[in-house]
Amino acid sequence: MAGTAGTPGTPRVLRAMNDRAALDLLLAHGPLSRTRIGKLTGLSKPTASQLLARLEAAGLVRVTGTSEGRPGPGAQLYAIDPAVAYAAGLDVTPHRVRAAVADITGRTVGEFELPTPGRRPAQPVVRQVTDALDGAVKAAGLARSDVHRLVIGTPGAFDPGTGRLRYASHLPGWHSPTLLDDLAAALPMPVEYENDVNLAAVAEQRLGAARGHEDFVLLWNQEGLGAALVLGGRLHRGWTGGAGEVGFLPVPGAPLVRKVTRAGSGGYQELAGSQALPGLARELGISPVPPGPYTEAATRLVARAADHADGPHRELLRTYATRLATGLASLVSVLDPELVVLGGSALTAGGEVLRALVQAELEELAAARPRLVVGEVREHPVLRGALESALAATRDEVFDTSR
After folding, report:
1. Does 5 or 110 have the greater pLDDT score?
2. What gap in Å lies between CA 15 and CA 9, rounded to an integer?
3. Which of 68, 98, 154, 237 has the fewest other C-beta atoms within 10 Å?
4. What is the pTM of this model?
C-alpha cells in the first residue's frame, strides 16, 4: 500500500493537514498550550499531544514556557521555532536596493540598504543584489546559505516569454538578456521576481487594509503611478506581466502620449503622477515648493495640503483628487472591484482628507462604487510584500510534514 500513502484521505495526509493547521494557529496567535491547540483545531487531547510531539521531533516547534494565572501547575506553551527557516526580500529602485531577512514567524532579523546613485550603475546588477542580500544576512547574524528563498521586487515586470524586464526603462543595468541566468548562477536559493506594486498589494492583503478581501485594486503613486489587481484572491499579472501599468493609460486632461514605451510615460502618469504636483503647486501660487526629488516634494506638498481647510493648498488637493479619479474611473469601470487601496507616499500622505475627495470624485465619474481606503502598511511596503511572498512559499515547503 506504499503507493497510496500520499493520496488524500490517508492518515499521512490527514496528519499533515492537522500539522499545518496547528502551525498556522501558532503563527497567528503565538505560543499556545496543548489544550488550546486542541480546542482551536477540534482535535482530541491525545491527538493534539501526538501532533505536538511530532512537530517537536521534526524541529518545527519547541516548548517556550508555561502558562500562568491559573491555580495549579502551568501548562506547557508551544511555539514555532523561529530558526526553522529564513526568507529574504529585495526592493529595487533606481536609487537604492533595500534588503531584509525574516525568520519563519515573519519577524525581520536583518536589514541593509545599498545606495545606487547615477544613471550608470557603479557595479553590475548581480553584485548589487548579492551585496544588498549579504548586508541583510550579515545584520541578521546568518550566512547566505541560511536563506531558503528570495523575492526581488522591481518596477515593471520580467516578461515570462523572454525573461527580459519590461515597463521599467528607468532602471539602469536591469535589461541584460542574460540577467536572470546570471542571478540564478550567483545565488544559492530559489529566486522569484515580482512587480513592486504587486508586492505592496501582497503586504496590504496579508497585513493591511485589504485583509479579508478577494477582489481589490491597489492604486500606487510614488516614483511612478501604477496599480496592482487582485482578482479572486490572486494577483492578475497579464500576458507579459504588464497588468496594472496604468501610468500608460490615455486619459482626458492630458495630451495623448504616443510611443509610450520609448517615452517611459503615458497620459495618466503625466496628469496625476508625483512629478506633476510641483508644477501644479506653482500654477496655484504655492510658495515655496519643497525642494529635492519630485517624489519627496510631491509627498510633502500632499501632506501639507491635507492640513489646510481652504486656499491654494486645498485647491491643489481637490485638483489632484480629480486627476486621480479620472484614471481610476477607467479601472473600476472595467474591473468593478470591491475595494480600492490608495498606496505609495504621494497618496498616503493625503490621508483621509485626500481619500474622501477621490471617493467623491470617483462617484461622479464612474458607475461602479468601490470603497476607497488608505493603505495601512507604511514602512517599506514593497519590501514587506517581498518578505511575505518569500515566507509563504518557504512555509509551504518546510511546514509540509507529509514529505
Report:
1. 110
2. 10
3. 68
4. 0.92
